[in-house]
Amino acid sequence: MMINMDIDYFKQRLLARRDELQASAETGTPGTATVALDQTRVGRLSRMDALQAQAMSQAAQQRRSVELQRVMAALRRIEAGHYGYCLECDGPIAEARLAVDPAAPLCIICADKS
Question: Model-level pTM greater than 0.85?
Fold first, then answer.
């Protein structure tokens, strides 16, 4: 049930994005480490900055994790032969939409409803 588009092109983009996200997750882990409470080493303002940086790093890691899940789901849809079809209405997803976001699981109409 494949629509007429270059599935290999989208698969290569998704694989490249998966690799980027996995590499980024490995390098982003140190920023999420617990901030030590050591008043002799770090002043209160420096600790607040460190806590803010930690929160930002954790949020970025969460966004990467969600995007990686979306990419992996799209790759599974390719393997199953369901890529390019909306998960809600089973209609085709516009190729232009997939060009912007190859992991898009919904057509624009169903995405607008959500």
Answer: no
